[in-house]
Amino acid sequence: MMELLAQVEYGPLAVKPYSTEWLIGLIVTFLLAAGAAIGLSKVPANFRRPIVSIGTFLCGLIYVLYWLWPRPVNLKPDQVPNGMVEQVGKGLSDTLPLLADVANILTSFLLGLGVYSLARIHFGKIIKRQSDRGFSWVLIVSATMISVFGFVDYILRSQDKAGKLVDRENWGFFNVGQDIMFDGLLLQMDSVMFSLIAFFILSAAYRAFRIRSVESTVMMASALVLMLSLLSPIMFQWNTMIAQMAKGMNIPNADPSIPYPGGFFHNLQISDWANWVKGNLQTPALRAVDFGILLGALAMGLRLWLGLEKGGVSV
Amino acid sequence: MIKEKLLNIDRRILYGLLILVTVIPLRCDQKLNNITDDYSNAFYEAVSNIPEGKTVFIESDWTTSTRGENSGHLEALLRILMAKKTKFAIFSVGDAQAPGVFRGVLLRLMEERKTLGLPAYQPFEDYVDLGYFANAEGTLQAIGGDVRKVFEKKSIRDAEGKQRSAFDSPVLSNVKSVGDVPMYIVVTASNTIDRAIERLSAKTTLACMCTGVIGPSALPYFQSGQLKGVAIGLKGVFDIEYLMANGLNLETKESVKWSKQPDKTAQPITVGKTLDRGNRYFLSFMCAILLLIATVVTGNVMMFVARAQSKPQGDEA
After folding, report:
1. Mean pLDDT, to the nearest integer, of A216-224?
2. Secondary structure letter of residue B283 according to DSSP
């Protein structure tokens, strides 16, 4: 089975792109996939759970076997695997990129589903003439325009053999349109949305960051150390001053030009305090949190793989 | 009256102050001093010492919302690679919008090279753009298994405009497995670095350039040696640019001295720009942090003053 799967060619993709064979293959594949999707939706409710569970188990099994099964070492592409163990190992290795392609296509369907869902909701609002349909018009028109301009710009750039489009003087209508819509509008608005956080953080920190308990005092002290350590030009001057003091007191190896204070004076460097907080408090805490999360993910993964999870499959 | 006002500063005043302290320093283009972080030093040392003729993989998983940090990361990284004439393959597994964004950065750097009179970095010959892969888990697992099968179906145009397999390009022709890639660098605004570590850390050397928010979760991997280096947030951009301008552990006066690893050295970049976005934005960033510290301190001082004044006289006795 593995050997068979490993030999699977990508029907429509194995031929020359945009040729007649490619187009026919694409249509046939689409019809087959649509047929399979319709067929699965007509399956009686009591069979749905076993079908999903078996599919999940088989897909998961390939990854588990890939992890556990020994694989041939340094096997060249034209070399035949020796014996059943090597054959299965090679088959698993060859199947993995195929599964990655399937997973990529399935994930792309999610993007398509998102676009479909958005279009359905907003076209519905426009058709029903709801009061806020103006926003739906804005969304539909801007999404269509940015898609068309982006796609035409992409094709023009792909066909630009001599690299003329690197110069703005050679840009045409669609290149300029794409630049205005993507770089000029979308990019800037996205950045503006994100930069608003800075205003809220400042206002919230001023109002909420008050020393009212021991815990908040510890938090404030560590936050202050970390924030001060980020001001590296100021910290550079501070460290230079400490190193000069150390040199004045004849501390061995003290060198203000690096700056390197040496000896006890190292303890006065705020950047070192910050490194201590990061290395000895923050990182171990995060590692502990990660460890807990990953144990939970392992348990959840096992439950999903073995079909023990009751939710998630509509019956 | 003033005490009351300082205890409850109108948020519009705070917003106005923040705009002022971030916008005004942007006009200042002064070279700043810096104390570089250990993980930034490790990153620069690792990228600077990539063997000649090898190809680097760049996974660019950020979009416009984190442009302030990640754009600087990618620009600095590409400038280092271009200065050293290192070939690279760039792709994304994190966001469908990401390829459009990294193509914008590439275009900007091409224009910059042209302005500076530097030779163009040619697609297909010097770098390949492999686009977007929708499923991070599956794609990275497959890259770890057989990188050729993942990328061989990607067709890209050569210098003559012909559609060819990505593996016909000199960039990927010598890559048989991900182990042939000396460094796999993730530029990210999300946790895609976790996926890369899970799937690839045993097979190649990983490094990361991430936002300040993601930084703390990347540091355990640096401490454990799974990441060769990390550049975190705007400080990371500034660190890398500073190291590009001054070098690491060299005999020169300007060179950064990394006292924990004195034997590791890296030359400065002498071709093209070095100090750019990181140096330009850092003064604004510093002023914003100072404003944050000042407002928090003011709020607390005024709270204690108000509390002391509201205490009944008998308590003091």
Report:
1. 91
2. H
